[in-house]
Amino acid sequence: MITRLPERWQYRLLLWPLPILLLLCYVIPFAGIVTWSVTLPELGVDNYARLANDPSIHAVLWRTLHLCAIVGVCALLLAFLMAYCWLYSSSRWQRWVELCIFLPFFISVLVRTFGWLVALRNNGLVNSWLQDLGLIDSPLALTRNTLGVIIAMVHFMVPFAFFPLLSSMRQIDDRVLLAARGLGASRLRVFISVFLPQTLPGLLGAFIMVFVFCLGFFIIPAILGGGSTLMAAEYVFLQMFQTYNWGIGAALCVLMLVLVSGLVWLLMRFSRVERLVG
Amino acid sequence: MHRTHQQDCIELLVEKARRGQIDRRSFLKAAGMLAALPLAMRSGIGWAQDRPVIIVNWGGDAIDAYRQAWTDSFTRETGIPVRIDGSGPTEGAIRAQLASGRPSWDVVDAEPFTSLTLGREGLMRPLDFNTIERSKVNEEFATEFGVAGYLYSYVIAWDKERFDSAPQTWADFWDVERFPGKRTMYKWMNGVLEAALLADGVAVEDLYPLDVARALDKIDELRPHILAYWGSGAESQQLFLDGEVSIGQIWNTRAIVLERDTEGRVGWHYDNACVTPSSWAVLGDNPAGSEPAMRFINHALEPEGQIELLKLLGNGPSNPAAEALIPEELIELNCGSVDNLARQFKLDIEWYADHYGSVLDQFLSRTGA
């Protein structure tokens, strides 16, 4: 049967399982969420009106966006340094960088979160070292607040920023850099005027990927946030399970999806995605 | 319509089986004697006894403890198997079960205001007080839709190494001069607004309806001193074990464990604590049917099982008859004893049933960073 189909159809057939899976497991359930958002508790756009007007929801959204942006910038900075270091160092150092990226990558996020709690809490490793060294008198508030959430999220996100950045750095032609040097530019000048601009698509892409990923974080803020860093994902959970406002929870999901879609559109528009993963 | 006697016998039998008055073996035997097996097989009776009753609680140690205190003995006595699911019967989770059209849960160990809210909407089965002896619990701990399986309490616990005197009242809890150090309170609000109002000078009898705005303002006052709002019992315990907080509003069950594990470094008492019942409730259209579920609840109100639970987890028996039977070393720990009840105030379930969702939203937006 199949062999009688024209060849291009055969290849298309191979592509079908994924869209079908997405349709069944994602699109159809999401249509249900959209329906909830306009029918619960009654038909209408009340839930969206509340999203627009309720200051407590604004606080959650603002906190989420703000935190994700900070995490995005910090993760980008670290990943940039590491990718740069990988690119221009001996293979021995490259192994070290790889180890630093891969090792945490394979440890469950839950384990890492509790690990951070042990390290950062008031009488945790970091604070007791600093106190023993006489650098501080009283413990720093490193966790059970927004700072703790940011530290753990940055740690989680660095690999996700590292790979797109590395791939865009590797596509830079060394001869261009050499030519710039040859024309008399200082090392710093070459970096700022020639190297950095060429990594911009990678930077933008990595930032958006990290940002989008962060929007849905649940475990890290719930554990390291000290009960006072309520982010969008936990807020949705709260509305679904604790207070039973499925309508408002669903509306928030729809809003987040619109936001993420917008960001992904930006990503596709301004950087070539295939180059970020190449 | 004409019926033979035999047909009538079968009908009676089927009816009895449907009501759960005879078990499957007797039914099949009788049907066999009536030479009516094929008919009996088609009768469409769901053999509730073969299907386990699903009891839903909050997981952790409570799964084994419930088994030891209640479900093993229930299965021994009635032959009805039980399965415990620890996924947490929050209001939303129960609604999700019911919205699916085919709930898989039978009996839930819910918050009393949850069972009341859902019951009033017709989503829970009204409890069958022919099967459940209502006299087994205090009047105030039973509603039409939920009956207390045990009592627990939000108590003041403190680290004795931080200060010499014991904080007695919620005003002490707010007094950071006399009782310095970080605090922790419950993330999902129960008892926190009450504590704030009591600290602000409201009398216990005037607490409800809660003055939410005033309570939130009072909580703002303490904000710089609150290290964390705990979301799970284990978290509250860890905060004290690590010496991160010097005083906290935590469950009595965790306070008991803490006092034992720290060899008395953490102290606590029932003075001014907030006592609240759990609530056994049954989902409407639950798969095992009404009767086994009601029988389980009645079984779980027996003093023996409740005392066992007190031993295992520290939850206070809801059946006043248990008090006389409690071993001496546990008497002090029982938050449901007449003496201890007199030292605590009761969470107003009616108020929570009417206001929980909307006020929790306000609370969380104020406690948020």
TrEMBL record, chain A:
- One Pfam family name from the record? BPD_transp_1
PROSITE patterns linked? ABC_TM1 (PS50928)
Intracellular or extracellular location(s) = Cell membrane
Segments spanning the bilayer are 20-40, 60-87, 99-119, 147-166, 244-268
A biological process term (GO) from this entry: transmembrane transport
Q: How does it sit in the membrane?
A: Multi-pass membrane protein
- Does the record bear Ribosomal protein in its keywords? no
Keyword rRNA processing assigned to the entry: answer is no
Highest taxon listed in the record's lineage: Bacteria
Would you name any one GO CC term? Answer: plasma membrane
What sequence ranges are listed for the domain ABC transmembrane type-1? Answer: 61-267
Q: What are the record keywords, sorted?
A: Cell membrane, Membrane, Transmembrane, Transmembrane helix, Transport
Q: Where is the signal peptide?
A: none
Family the entry assigns: Belongs to the binding-protein-dependent transport system permease family. CysTW subfamily.
Spell out the PANTHER family in the cross-references.
Answer: ABC TRANSPORTER PERMEASE PROTEIN (PTHR42929:SF5), INNER MEMBRANE ABC TRANSPORTER PERMEASE PROTEIN YDCU-RELATED-RELATED (PTHR42929)
Q: What is this protein called?
A: ABC transporter permease
Naturally occurring in which organism (per UniProt)? Vreelandella sedimenti
Q: What is the lineage of its organism?
A: Bacteria, Pseudomonadati, Pseudomonadota, Gammaproteobacteria, Oceanospirillales
UniProtKB/TrEMBL annotation, chain B:
Q: Where are the transmembrane segments?
A: none
Location of the protein in the cell: Periplasm
The parts of the chain that form a coiled coil are none
**What GO cellular component entries does it have?**
outer membrane-bounded periplasmic space
**Which GO biological process annotations does it have?**
thiamine transport
Gene Ontology molecular-function annotations: thiamine binding; thiamine pyrophosphate binding
Domain of life, source organism: Bacteria
Asked whether the UniProt record includes Transport among its keywords, one would answer: yes
The record's section on SUPFAM superfamilies has: Periplasmic binding protein-like II (SSF53850)
Name the Pfam families for this protein. SBP_bac_8
Query: Which PROSITE patterns does this one have?
Result: TAT
- Keywords from the named record: Periplasm, Signal, Transport
UniProt keyword annotation of Transcription present? no
The record's similarity note reads:
Belongs to the bacterial solute-binding protein 1 family.
What name has this protein been given in UniProt? Answer: ABC transporter substrate-binding protein
